[in-house]
Amino acid sequence: MMVVDHVLIVDVEATCWAGTPPPGESTEIIEIGMCPVEVSSGERGSRRSRC
User: Fold this and answer.
1) Could you give the strand order of the β-sheet that contains 48-50, starting from the edge strand earlier in sequence?
2) Global pTM value
């Protein structure tokens, strides 16, 4: 049995529109955020992001 002591939380921010995208536009990922978390305590590590 494998025990997990840390997980990596990933958050993706993307362009979006209310309804259909305008002509010629599409959804694009504009930022990815990451943060390690210790499972037993819920303690967060250092947050990082890439644009």
Assistant:
1) 6-14, 29-38, 48-50
2) 0.67
